Amino acid sequence: MSDLPAPLRDVVGPLTFATREGTPLERIGGLEALVRARLTAWRAALPPDSALQGRAAVWLEALAGCETLAPPARRARLRLVLDGITALDAGAPAATPSPAAPTPPTGAAAPAPAETPALDLHADVRFLPGVGEKRAATLARLGVHTVEDLLLHLPARYEDRRQLTAIAALVPGAAATVRGKVLETELVTTPRRRMRILQAAVTDASGLGGLLQVRWFNQPHHARQLAAGSEYLFSGKVAYDRRGTGLVMENPEFEPWDAADQALHTGRLVPVYPATEGVTTRQLRRWVATALERVDVPEPLPAPLRDRLGLPERGAALAQAHRPDDPEAARAATRRLAFEEFLFLQVGLALKRGREARRRTRVRFRPAPGPLEAALLKALPFRLTPAQDRVLGEIGADLARGVPMHRLLQGDVGCGKTAVALLALVRAVDNGFQGAMMAPTEILAVQHHDRIRQLLDGVPVRVELLLGGPGRRGRKAALSRIAAGETHLVVGTQALIQEHVAFHRLGLAVVDEQHRFGVRQRARLGEKGDAPHLLIMTATPIPRSLAMTAYGDLDLSVIDALPPGRRPVVTRLFSESRREAVYARVRREVEAGRRAYVVFPLVEESEKLDLAAATEARAALAAGPLAGLSLGLLHGRLPGEEKAAVMDAFARGDVQVLVATTVVEVGVDVPEATVMVVEHAERFGLSQLHQLRGRVGRGDHPGQCLLIASHAVSRDGRARLKALVESHDGFVIAERDLALRGPGELFGRRQSGLPELKVADLIRDARLLAVAREAARELVAADPDLARPEHRLLRRTVAARWKHRLKWGAVG
Ligand code: ADP
Ligand code: MG
């Protein structure tokens, strides 16, 4: 409230306290007199022509005789004054009353005792008294737009301030909160270790022994927040320092003590919000308190469900999550809010699946392989592994059901997803339909196309490659062959989903490396036919909890074994100082006739930098450890055709070492490649590294992956990389990545369509997620459109969530 005019500053706390529901107003005296005195002082200092003169008059009017009113009427008037004053603070101009705090007509008699002005949960947060335009903009950066968002912005933790301890009563070894006055501060630097210590001597009224040393290590900036002579709350663990002054508190949390405001900040478990630029925990506490007072929180969860799971009501949960009675109440509240977040998501998914299941498709395949598929199976240079067989069976069953398939096929790099997809695509052709396969890059599209043609050698299936670029040679002819149905299978990039691409009879669309595509693109492919089947493939092993959210509308198939004879890639971790030894290995392999990748992290912020880094890296290698070898360079700025040319040269062996900054293009299959060096390995996600190493050792010789970690890498960073050295299980690695770096990292930063979770946590709340999923399925099974009256609010909430938060296809 620092922006308030001085005379009004300390009336806000008492007014807030007095107007809260539950405060025994009849026992509060003298408040009106105080506020009147302050208002009068403030008004006297205003210029006579100020527009605020009128407001002051109205508020003084409202306070006249206020003490004698019945509590509800008295509360309403006090609230009116409070709202007016806090709106000043928010910088809201007097001329634009917010809907929350209507301005009474000037000169009118004291306002009629009103009901508490209620705020809608979905109201813009700037209408919350005390917030205003400026701070609303800051809140928006936290993702807080509405009052509800604010209430779902939960504390990072709570501080137990149920009791303040007198300094004289402090016990070493225990945590405590102390209210004390700073006598002096001092910043010292230790001679040997150059540590900067900020010390403050703090005292309270507890008499003899009431002196506490407070110190912070290497946080000199706190000096600016501490003024000698002012009072603060300090919370932390107390220790006994024999050399110094006795009792010390090290690195405590602290905040100014504000007598007027103590009800908000002391005497209970108080919330501590995640630190953010521009908004303080104290401001949040106040806004949340106001919001909790003002909003009516409806309950979207059906009562039987809540009873069964022992979940508190929504309104109570929001209140307890911010201002808990005790730690147990805080836990129950958070659990309820995490649950509902999962439930809204899962109900949306269940509705979507339900609708899809009711949608019929005329694309219905015969359950058994036709002649083309049988011919392909015979022509394959290998036998399907049991895992491939099983998955093909799952897909085949879907294709015969008369309901469009939506299936996610997961499997590590090299497990043979392409072969399975091709067999399914050929089944489409056997049934008189076309098939399409979409790859994320031109190089991968070309490789799939070539590989598929190779595998189909002697099988009469016509395959077409479709890349972007309207001027491309032969493109027009290809498009008309596709439209006429002369082409059976189309392999391509995103060019496949452009508007002018028309299929004759698309029956099955396969999307490779799904995490490179947004959900919208996937949907667009589905629109290319009359409800065609969709198979989505990814080499990113997706932890179960994430699959249930990000891909919760898909059925899941997993190829969990590599083809026989595949040896796991030997992975080793080196520090920078061993770089020479690493490249000596590379040289040995290349001189023995094999090929190597050297991967540098992509500098995402700037393609120019990326290019510079890559060019430099290659030059350094060519001049140094890899002198005399043939080095190729692949980076993000290279035009598609040049990329393809470099890859071809690498596949042929004209290029022996491929230096790459773009990871995608490494997603190709060159059996002679046996070594992969990853520079600055610590900058990659574990799953990404796991996929990268899957690119080597795909031929007769074992592969090795040599990770180089920078000196600067932390101990945690090193431990993380060690996990990769020790494990070959993509799921184990993905779980670790998810735990350490969050879902965004697992999929790459640009992944769209991942649900944004405000309260729930995929790791911590994994079990709750499973419960929510089950509950959602039951609800939708019993009431497929959630049309029953007791489900109406749930349905509305879900629809709103999906619309605003998820940017997925529409629900409901
Ligand atoms: P993914 O797309 O899952 O990374 P691919 O489909 O590209 O893997 O297969 C990797 C390699 O394994 C290819 O060279 C492919 O021909 C081969 N392959 C696939 N299935 C088998 C199998 N059952 N037995 C032996 N090799 C296989
Ligand atoms: Mg693949």
Brief summary:
This protein is of the alpha/beta class and 812 residues long. The chain has 27 helices and 21 strands.
List keywords for this structure.
812 residues, alpha/beta, seven-stranded parallel β-sheet, six-stranded parallel β-sheet, 27 helices, 41% helix, 15% strand, globular, binds adenosine-5'-diphosphate, binds magnesium ion
Description:
Helix 9 (281-294) packs antiparallel against helix 11. The strands form 4 sheets. The chain has a 7-stranded parallel sheet, sandwiched between helices. A 6-stranded parallel sheet has the order 16-21-20-17-19-18, sandwiched between helices. It is built from 27 helices and 21 strands. The protein is 41% helix and 15% strand. With 812 residues, the chain is of the alpha/beta class. The two termini are 43 Å apart. The structure holds adenosine-5'-diphosphate and magnesium ion. Residues 382-385, 388, 411, 413-419, 539, 563, 669 line the site of adenosine-5'-diphosphate (ADP).
